[in-house]
Specification:
The complex is a heterodimer of chains A (about 400) and B (about 400). Chain A is built from 13 helices and ten strands. Chain A is α+β, with helices and mostly antiparallel strands and about 400 residues long. A four-stranded mixed beta sheet of chain A has the order 1-4-5-8, with helices on one face. Chain A has a four-stranded antiparallel beta sheet with strand order 2-3-7-6, with no helix packed on it. Chain A starts with 7 loop residues before the first helix and ends in an 11-residue tail after the last helix. Classes of the chains: A alpha+beta (about 400), B alpha+beta (about 400). At the A-B interface, helix 7, helix 8, helix 9 and helix 12 of A face helix 8, helix 9, helix 10 and helix 12 of B.
Chain lengths: ~400, ~400
Amino acid sequence: MISFEPTEDQKLITGTVSDFAKSTLAPRAREFEAAQAVSAEARRAVHELGLSLAAIPEALGGQGLGLITATMINEELAYGDPAAPFGLPGFGAYLIAAQELGSDEQAKALIAPFAEPSAHDRFGAVAWSERKPNRDRAGFVTTAKKVSGGYELTGAKAFVGNADLAESLIVFAQVDEKAGWNGVGAFVVDKQNPGLRVAGRHQTLGLECGHFGEIVLEAAKVSDGGRLEGRGDFIAACTRFFAKYSLIVAARQVGLARLAFDVSREYCDIRKAFGKPIGHFQDIAFTLADRHMDAESARELVRRGAWTWDAGKDLDKCLLATAQAVAHAHQVAMRCADDAVQLHGGAGFMRDVIVEKLMRDAKQMALAGATAEQMDQLAAAVELGLPLDPALIWPTPETQAVLT
Amino acid sequence: MIDFELNTQQRMLKEALHDMGKSVIRPQSLGWDRQKTIDLAFLRNFYMMSQALRGENNPMEDFNEGPKNRDPGKPVQTNRTAAMGAEELAWADASIMLSLPGPGLGGPPIRASGTPEQKERFFSIFRDMSDELRWGAYGLTEPGAGSDVAAIRTSCKRDGDAYILNGRKCYITMGGRASWVVIFATVDPALGRAGHRAFVVEKGTPGFFVGKIEEKMGLRANETAELVLEDCRVPAANLLGGEEKYQTKEGFMTAMKTFDNTRPLVAAMACGIGRAAYEYARDFVKDNYVLGRPIPRYSAIAERLARVGRNLEAARILTWKAVWMADHHLPNAKEASMSKALAGQAAIWACIEAIEICGAHGTLAEDHALLEKWFRDIKVYDIFEGTGQIQRIVISKRLLTDLRAF
């Protein structure tokens, strides 16, 4: 039965997260930006809310609240500070990758440390992108060579969230060089691995507290047990990982879009020109109406995308609804943030007001997880009944390199 | 709980309309468009079928207050089900929905403001239409007053037990064949909205004429008429709600009340037409291109298609939200306008893009029978029941503080 009403639990959770985001994250957004990190105090507070494992099934050590609830939590956090969720332990790509790519045993082992009381200081990372596409063959430059008892990883990864903080990284590398994007594997690399080196931190357009950086792998040894094989179908598992992670990012874009809209609306109410509030001019009012339609539709589409996964729909249905939601949310957030700066006029360009940060964050976030362009290709592939070719539907460095 | 699954009744309705749309309606759609009317035989069959579907429910209940013995605070499914039906029927042919026998847009104002006697008198003619199909209509727009409803000039003057009406109404859906039309008039233009009165003017009333039947860009199978009132004497008993109803601004509100519930249905219809064009382009691409590889040219087509698809999806989700709110008796004027504004835009875009994707073929009626028709049909969905701009006025008044007028 069609319903837009969250459950009582979801209302309670979103209410709590919303209060927290407004009182703790929002006032410190600029502080996190300058420090290029979410403060330990805020991280501890988030961890104490106990929501970082919301979407992880109970069987794997999570809270089993489902993806709809997870999108609601991320939306509310982002409404406080859209960058903050990228600097919070447990909210990133790592746990979703562990859940989707690992066996039950591997997933449990990887997820458990994040449920511990001290986990507010514990980060994981997913190393997917590389700076340049491989010009010689399809697939990653970074290779995983089979050696006795495990693999040796060699290469470099870029745009890795929390690269320098992560205790554990899930690294993607080419296992079978001849198989192109079908020959990719995922490996768990610990921070202590002597073959792993954090190469540096990216200075980014936005999302400063996301700690995006590069890593270098020099014959980093991973045991056979450290390879994540996606429960038999690695390609499908990897597709699910990107779909779900991108949906979480899309939920943050919705939070950003709502925030940009609300800030703009308030400004248009109080800023006067030619003797009346600027919101009382049609061009401004209609712009606000359009952005409101944008933010509201993106929010419901993201929930619909999450619903397909929670309701156990066919993979094609889940991927289509997710792709549509993610692509729409990215474009909506950018439009809302762009107009927020525009409606503020010169003041919007100044760092006294939050909107300039929102515009930078929106663009940066549009490149986290799969992009709108990649999601459109995915949606078209599903609709046209084409085989889901990883080269086409994953955010590979051959199309647009993305942040993870 | 958040849920996007149709219930059994909605799914069955959707499937039944879809099958009929595909095998019965679409093959006749272009013919109706050319002959500028839907076959009465088809409308009669469709009407009989929908009566049968209603089963034990008394159809009069729907026309009057809605089913009896219903707790007014309890959510219903009616608006959601209607939206499903509207989308599917419009997917098959846009003109049918607007041409169905019954009170049409004239229904809501009578339901909202009519006296019990008026409801019985004007709705009873639809109780049994097995002998003859009948329509009602809604006459608000005038040559000089479209979106600015308050500017209507059609006059009404009390004269004994009647009112004398003078003026012209235009773009009246099914106005030529309607058994009665709800006509909005004013006692004094200087009074603005307070001067408005709504009358039910019956066919054959002396001084009440049908003017020209319009030639249109699209929706050609649906009748759009001009109505002329020349010293037309309308009994005072046909003043909607009686004289005391108009001591407040109610008169104008009656006109507007019609729209909160109908806008999402128009949005749903737009989604149906847009979806038809989208699916057509999708299947065309499937049959005519090789999209297996990320070749730039082809991925550009894929992206276009995907954008059309998701914009329609965004419009549909707002439409569903608006009808869901209506079913829960939540005020939804803003959401109704949002759904209509977004759906009109998304569906027009879908039709434009679909033609573009199909190339020159897309414009040929002989090769792509219905695509060029949908393109013609869809434009008015961003115009009637409030233009996209009017919707944005409705929305922005509910976003900004103290914004009463521009």
